[in-house]
Fold this sequence. Notes:
By secondary structure, the protein is mainly α. 41% of the residues lie in helices and 0% in strands. It is built from 3 helices and no strands. The protein has helices at 20-53, 82-85, 99-104.
Amino acid sequence: MSEQDGKYKGQFQAAYVPDPEELKARKSRNLWLGLALAGFVILVGIVTFIRLSSSDLSKGAFYYDPQDGQREAQELPPGMTEDMAAPPPNLTPIEEAPAEEAEEAPE
């Protein structure tokens, strides 16, 4: 397969083994870092819960709106009339048939 001449001829160093003091310091650092991260996650969860519980999601706004319920109708741009802003007549919703007619049709 491969020849022995092409292999690396250098020496390898042994893996580093930390002292017990270094292991203790590393463990303490990791513990505090983990607690800080857990605290941040809990803080974000609480803030999200408070913001979502104070908003009304039934209006179709699936995000927090600080002006929820305080918004007025937007003004039309200069030069635009109410007729221009109205949707075209062919885009009106289709009315459904009354329930009585729907029951009689299958007979």
